[in-house]
Amino acid sequence: MALTIRQIRYFIAAAETGKIFEAAATVNVSPSSVTEAVKELEVQFGTPLLQRQRNGVRLTYEGYRFLQHAKKILSAVADAGFALSKQETNFSGRLDLAATITVCGYFLPHLLSRFRKTFTNLDVRLYEHTRKVIEKKVGRGQVDLGVVLTSNITGSPTMDSLTLLRSQRRLWIKTNHAFTDHDVVTLAEIAEEPYIQLMIDEAANTTRNYWSSYGLKPRIIFNTESVEGARSMIANGEGVTILSDMVYRPWSLEGERIETKAISETVPTMDTGLIWNNTRPLSKPAQAFIDFCRMEYTSGQS
Asked: What angle do CA 227, 96, 135 make, to 5 degrees?
């Protein structure tokens, strides 16, 4: 059986949403089509990629490893599509991008590398700021585009946005945690556990908002601005946290394993994308970057 782009896209949608019905809506097909595509991949590779649970699906370790390669395959296809779309790529100019710390660490580097390889004559300059500072700089025309968590933006009428990735938030636990055998975990159960709170990119505000909507709050024992610090503490049994799939890795720096669990309540996704000022004409490099990103993240959808 030949590996197809359809199978890869449907698998990625299921892996990132954690729910077959949501994945189907993302790629505009029936849930049975997504299920069939994933089963075809599992038969082809001879190993389960998704673990079916009462409240959705979660990646197996093999599924997580395949997901990293699957994303690279789709990126390569998107790059080829952009190259064949007759877009002009040899013009020169300067592009100023401002990104938040999470975006710089876990989203932008690979995308930016592919963009530079396509537009070799552009001078791309990257700056790291908070989301609030980026919105001000975009509004004042001091940078062309902001690459931010669009789920945090304020929605100014002078600002346009394009969400590229919606990353599901899940519970992070150490291997052999008491929740290991749970299909899903409730926020009430998580509230009994020591909680590691990430502070960067307004994560504390987001956490407070969705917890308070259920009349609950986590038992925070430690606040940190380091994703890797949070990962290590969780892997070593110091606590748990809820973070997005975009920053998830199954191993801590010490080599200890981390697992994720679905949450029974609806927790908002962490959305990443672009913002720009709609009161000023976009520069040619800025428009090229928007078009490139749109191709990277929406090409091949049904």
From this structure: 65
Helix intervals (H) in 157-283: 187-190, 203-212, 227-235
Strand blocks (E) in the chain = 50-53, 56-59, 93-99, 122-128, 145-149, 159-167, 169-174, 184-185, 194-198, 219-224, 241-244, 258-263, 270-277
**Which of 3-7, 52-56, 77-81, 260-264 is least confident?**
77-81
Q: Where are the domains of the chain?
A: 5-82, 93-166+271-298, 169-268
Q: What sign for the dihedral angle of Cα 98, 100, 103, 109?
A: positive
Q: Tell which CATH classification among 3.20.20.70, 3.30.565.10, 3.40.190.10, 3.30.420.10 matches the domain 169-268.
A: 3.40.190.10
Half-sphere exposure of 202 (CA within 13 A, CB side): 20
Q: Which of 60-74, 90-104, 179-193, 234-248 has the lowest mean pLDDT?
A: 60-74
Burial group, residue 117, by CB count within 10 angstroms (0-12, 13-18, 19+): exposed
In our burial notation (b when 16+ CB lie closer than 10 A, e otherwise), range 82-97 reads: beeeeeebeeeeebbb
What contacts 284, CB < 8 A, 6 or more positions away? 91, 93
